[in-house]
Specification:
mainly alpha, 17 helices, globular
């Protein structure tokens, strides 16, 4: 397949349909409860363990480097201590059990056990076949895991592969644009397409003073105005970041082809809407706040 065979931004639209079904896990009561029972009580230790477990019992430096937008001091408060409470293998088991119950609660058993779920899993896995491991640490470590046998878990596994593949590429794009972790968060929030400042500060470990300092740095580059809104140059930069991320992430969607991408977007988009309506995410999570 070539990029000309796909409608413009088809890969991004597919990612935006699939990714919520991956990321809903981290806001689910199943995730919070199951990880708390394993001694990982609270969002930060559970999240750091769940996303980094495919890499093994890594230290805080590895998590900081690969996650990019989290403050290192927050990570270091929990990593590597999380591995003393639950091994990476245990964490991966807890994660899949929480995924099973979350998808059944949000989508219903009929959807989870439907032929369409098996179809979506096959499509997402086919797309992921074209993802590359080199310079993609979060993707590559997830790709080393076995594919679960149940279709809804296989779908979540493939959704995670696609999410981490795009995310690894996006980190490279942010670094190339010379946006440090907090500048990346501030500019994304100002675009209205990311999490609100409240949630970014609450989950990423930065302080309000550090947030304001990052805003000042962006103003000095002409990317943010006095009211904290993106300037024309800032808007153009955010567009370029996404376009370049699309370019680096094009392989899986070219491999799947236009018809497959359209079908996966349709299936995942419908379930994502169902999940949103079922309260998969906090009502004030997204937007400018």
């Amino acid at each position: 397949m070539t990029t000309d065979s796909l409608p413009e931004r088809a890969g991004r639209r597919c990612h935006n349909a699939v990714n919520p079904l991956h990321s809903a896990l981290y806001f689910s009561p199943e995730f919070t409860r199951d990880f708390a029972e394993a001694g990982l009580d609270g969002f930060a230790p559970a999240y750091f363990a769940a996303r980094s477990a495919p890499m093994g019992a890594v230290g805080p430096g590895t998590v900081t480097a690969t996650f990019y937008v989290f403050k290192h001091e927050l990570i270091a408060r929990h990593v590597p201590g999380v591995w003393e409470k639950a091994s990476p293998r245990d964490v991966l088991g807890i994660r899949l059990r929480a995924v099973d119950r979350m998808l059944r609660r949000l989508l219903g058993d009929a959807a989870v056990e439907s032929p369409e779920m098996a179809e979506a899993a096959a499509l997402a896995q086919r797309a992921a076949e074209a993802c590359g491991r080199h310079s993609r640490p979060l993707y590559a470590s997830q790709a080393d895991l076995p594919v679960p046998g149940e279709p809804h878990l296989a779908f979540w596994h493939a959704a995670t592969l696609l999410r981490e593949h795009r995310g690894d590429g996006h980190v490279s794009v942010l670094a190339d644009a010379e946006l440090d972790p907090l500048e990346a968060l501030v500019s994304h929030s100002a675009s209205g397409k990311g999490m609100t400042p409240k949630w970014m500060l609450q989950t990423r470990g930065w302080t309000e003073d550090e947030w304001h300092a990052a805003q000042d740095r962006l103003r000095a580059r002409g990317l943010l105005d006095a009211d904290g809104e993106l300037t024309e140059a800032g808007t153009e930069l955010r567009k370029r970041l996404e376009t370049e991320t699309d370019r680096l992430d094009r392989a899986p969607y070219e491999h799947l082809g236009a018809a497959g991408v359209q079908r996966l977007t349709e299936l995942a988009g419908g379930w994502a809407m169902t999940a949103f309506e079922a309260g998969a995410f906090p009502s004030d999570l997204f937007g400018k706040g």
